[in-house]
Automatic annotation (TrEMBL):
<dbReference type="GO" id="GO:0005829">
    <property type="term" value="C:cytosol"/>
</dbReference>
<keyword id="KW-0418">Kinase</keyword>
<dbReference type="GO" id="GO:0005524">
    <property type="term" value="F:ATP binding"/>
</dbReference>
<protein>
    <recommendedName>
        <fullName>Cytidylate kinase</fullName>
        <ecNumber>2.7.4.25</ecNumber>
    </recommendedName>
</protein>
<keyword id="KW-0963">Cytoplasm</keyword>
<dbReference type="InterPro" id="IPR011994">
    <property type="entry name" value="Cytidylate_kinase_dom"/>
</dbReference>
<keyword id="KW-0067">ATP-binding</keyword>
<dbReference type="GO" id="GO:0006220">
    <property type="term" value="P:pyrimidine nucleotide metabolic process"/>
</dbReference>
<comment type="similarity">
    <text>Belongs to the cytidylate kinase family. Type 1 subfamily.</text>
</comment>
<dbReference type="InterPro" id="IPR003136">
    <property type="entry name" value="Cytidylate_kin"/>
</dbReference>
<dbReference type="InterPro" id="IPR027417">
    <property type="entry name" value="P-loop_NTPase"/>
</dbReference>
<keyword id="KW-0808">Transferase</keyword>
<dbReference type="GO" id="GO:0015949">
    <property type="term" value="P:nucleobase-containing small molecule interconversion"/>
</dbReference>
<keyword id="KW-0547">Nucleotide-binding</keyword>
<dbReference type="GO" id="GO:0036430">
    <property type="term" value="F:CMP kinase activity"/>
</dbReference>
<dbReference type="GO" id="GO:0036431">
    <property type="term" value="F:dCMP kinase activity"/>
</dbReference>
<dbReference type="Pfam" id="PF02224">
    <property type="entry name" value="Cytidylate_kin"/>
</dbReference>
Amino acid sequence: MKNVIAIDGPGGAGKSTIAKLLAERLNYIHLDTGAMYRALTLAAIKNNIDFDQKNKLVKLAKSIDITFDENGEIFLNGENVTEEIRTAEVNSHVSQIALIKGVREILVEKQQQLAQNNMVVMDGRDITTVVLPEAEYKFFLTASLEERAKRRYQEIKSKDNEAYFEKIKKSIARRDKLDSERKHSPLKKAEDAILVDTTNLSIDQVLDQMITIIEGDSK
Ligand code: DC
């Protein structure tokens, strides 16, 4: 699948930041699939749907409209929810929604359609393994739990002084566990994905490594 780049990895590994910058450099569209699971979680909260009511959640996934604009901002039924999908409440429920097979089928289909019609950098948990296994380039970005917690802490601390490092670390570890041990499309590295450990690398260094691989191939 030419002109399609797939990136997976755990939360806080830098996927979305890197995917966005990579898309800018290549003039591709960036699609953050985690944002789609988050938008659905937000819709469930707004509609007072319990997170154990699987059928209702699948129905909701079918009925809502999730779109992106050219800047990567995300819209739920036409409303810009880019900020709202990052709240602690959404954080604490999104992995539960992502466990549901029917929900995944609907979102995966949307993601595959988007990749058919665009030049994309798509990031998530199952992009290299399930959504776009035929992508031209596949990367698995990771970093130590400590480093990922540090990054989230820095990000949140700037908005919320009461963010505590240990609490964040625990929450990331909990999501890692749910994402990688779930039955349907668990987070795992595709055998042929290129592993990039970002623990001791700056954003620019990660980007350079990836661009070198991509541009090296086209020479
Ligand atoms: O990358 P993120 O933190 O925004 O992802 C939010 C949640 O969505 C995360 O717990 C795992 C889930 N997710 C998924 O299951 N599959 C994807 N392709 C993307 C995200």
